[in-house]
Amino acid sequence: MKRLLVFLVVGPLIFNATVLLLFGEPELKITWLVTPIFSISLALLTAAFDYGLKEYRWQAAYVGSAGYFLAAIMLHSWSGGIAGCVPAAFCSWLANQSWSPRET
User: Fold this and answer.
1) What are the tens digits of pLDDT across the range 76-98?
2) Can you tell me whether residue 30 is helix, strand or coil?
């Protein structure tokens, strides 16, 4: 459940920030209607891929690569793939962190 919440809450925020950083302010206002739908679908797909790779070494790198290729295919732009790679890798890393205090 934590994994899905991280991908659905943090993922679209980072995706939208990365798109704005890469491409600037969109000229068409319709983009603001499409971007949330696209970012949530990307978050669901990468969360499912991340769940399938549970306990794998280099998990964040694999999920980041999947996010890159999914975004590149959906945006029809290889540079747009970076906008999918960044949130996918970050959310994968964040979802696999243990937040319980360690005993020494």
Assistant:
1) 888 888 888 999 999 999 988 87
2) coil
Closest CA to 92 of 37, 56, 46, 45: 46
d(CA 62, CA 68): 10
| Residue 88: CA count within 13 A, CB half-sphere | 30
For residue range 55-76, list pLDDT tens digits in order. Answer: 888 889 999 999 999 988 888 8
- Within 8 A by CB and 6+ apart from 59, the residues are 50, 53, 92, 96
What tokens does 58 get?
Answer: 């280099």
AA letter at 88: A
Nearest to 50 by CA among 64, 71, 68: 64
